[in-house]
Amino acid sequence: MTAEIGQAAIFLSVLSCLWAIAFLSVGLRMRNPNAIQSGRNAVLATFILISISTGALIYGFLTDDFSMRYVVEVSSAAQPLFYKITALWGRMSGSLLFWLWILTVVGAIVVWQGRQRNEETHDTLADHALIPIVVVQLFFTILVTGLIEGIYNPLARFPNGQVAADGQGMNPLLQTPLMAIHPPTLYVGWISLTVPFAFAVGALTSGRVGSEWILRTRRWTLFSWIILTLGIALGGNWAYKELGWGGYWAWDPVENASFMPWLLGTAYLHSVMIQEKRNMLKLWNILLITLAFQFTLLGTFITRSGIITSVHAFAQSDIGPYFLGFILASTGGVIGLVIYRWKRLKSANQLESLLSRESAFVLNNWLLVGLTLIILWGTLWPVISEALNGEKSSVPESFFNKVVIIPGILLLFLTGAGPIISWRKITTNNFRRLFAFPLLMGLAGGALTWGLLELIGDTLPQSLVLCSFAVAFLVDDALTWGFRALMDFPLYSVLCSFAAVFVCVAIFAEFYRGARLRAKRQETSFFNGLNLLIQRNKRRYGGYIIHIGIVILYIGIMGSKGYFQLESRSMTFGESMEVGKYQLTMRDSFQKDYANYRRTAVVFDVAKDGKQIGSMEPARHFYYRVGQGDQDTVESAIRHFGLNDLYVAIGNIPPNFKAGGFVNVQAYHNPLIRVVWIGIAVMVLGGIVAIAEKSDRSRDP
Asked: Which pTM does this prediction carry?
């Protein structure tokens, strides 16, 4: 009966969504508090009903109820308990139910927050925002009812009382701790963007298009940005460890689908500061957060429609047109509201100078939105090319690498220039005071990089050219596009070195000046002054920490991509191979059986400069999947040496391997790979500091 109760709860939630939309709309129109309260209660009822459905599905996993179709497809009796629970989002039907449940949690939180404020101020902005939230809930609820062609109800049973002997088991690639965390983290990041979008729509419907809706959703947007950053990083780390190719980002369509809302959310976080401080960009901010929200749905469309091939995507289905239709309909609704409120959306002020913080943030927005559109074009090109000439044309990774380089360098520079330049217009004296020293140090860093690269080129020790790694990996690709003149002059490395040094010096100078002044005023130590400075304006200085993290991330990405070494060969026992300064000797192999898979590992002795330093055990895991035969995964072996990694993966292991057969081995030396994860950690730390700002209005945006 559990599954039937869950199905009934889903159908009842359709009614509760309709109830909420109707009563909130009528109550706000008629200013009837009882109707508004009834609508709020319906939102809470939807949360309870979908929680019952989600709990019923999890119960089916825990009890191995193989009369349920979804349980059979993504679980098995031998599957570990942890992965039985995470199977909830293992395939499309369950992942949509999980998405819907998170969305109802978000709706319940908005009800609670709005009720708290409404009791104090009789404010109904949150009630206006609830309507678009419930509309999105209704869309997902209809999808999981199973009434839509292309998707079945995740709680549906097999017909005629059929019960399978066992389940097929979850995709082996998903049976890792990282993939247990990565999808729900991304979901939470995407779904939480619904709130600022809903408040933007609420501001349009209520006519309150000032900065209030931005201030009310600042923490929601920052929370979404932090969680998306974590989710993208976890996905990259999963790809690095589990796919056996030595990398963590390949511009895969589903990777792009998670990255594009992050870019738009980053642009929005910068542009709203202009509206708060200068009462400008009202229309732009509404359109920007609408784009960010729609790109979360677009990502879901790309993941689930099957129109684009991806290692991360779900199987092909007919659900894509429904997502596309909802995206177009909801976007059309926002455009209609914008036209209706056009006069109120006019900016009260204009840009006064190109040398101002407003201009820097606007340029930042153009670059981020431009990057998003470029990535979207490359992602959808297989579909576009098929429509034009009947054949799908794949877009290589090098395309994205080439087109993002110049915008990337400009954005890196702006992470230092934007925060220190003045609002309205910078004076000559302020320019000298704020920019002279960082620019001088940046030029010195760029000149040093140029001189060192000219002298000893790619053999330069990494400790001397950390910043120059930022774009060096693209030089060879750029040359193939006609920039042969750069062969002896790695311009991109020099530019990035200049930008990275400039940013670090500019931001650390801001911390130093502020902390010294605070310490002097409070008659305390410099470090106490620094703590007081950050505590007084967490939003501002948290943003500075994020910018430092971005510089570190640049260094790690370009160092690991530009200076990695790869060796690949077929090996048997006793043979050795070298990668960089490391020697790998194949010594042994072994097998070990677990509940639902068999591990076959190969043992390598590792030496550096002829000195033994340990061993590594890359492996293949062969999973037993009912009705689908054995499926295997690559289990790479990774050893950390300071900031660098030695990475070894093996190919398919032949049956005669123990008797002297050969196995393909790929070994990578990835310099500065750990700097990538350090940079992301610093960015997240900065986001946590910024979101800790207690007041709705920052003292200094």
From this structure: 0.88
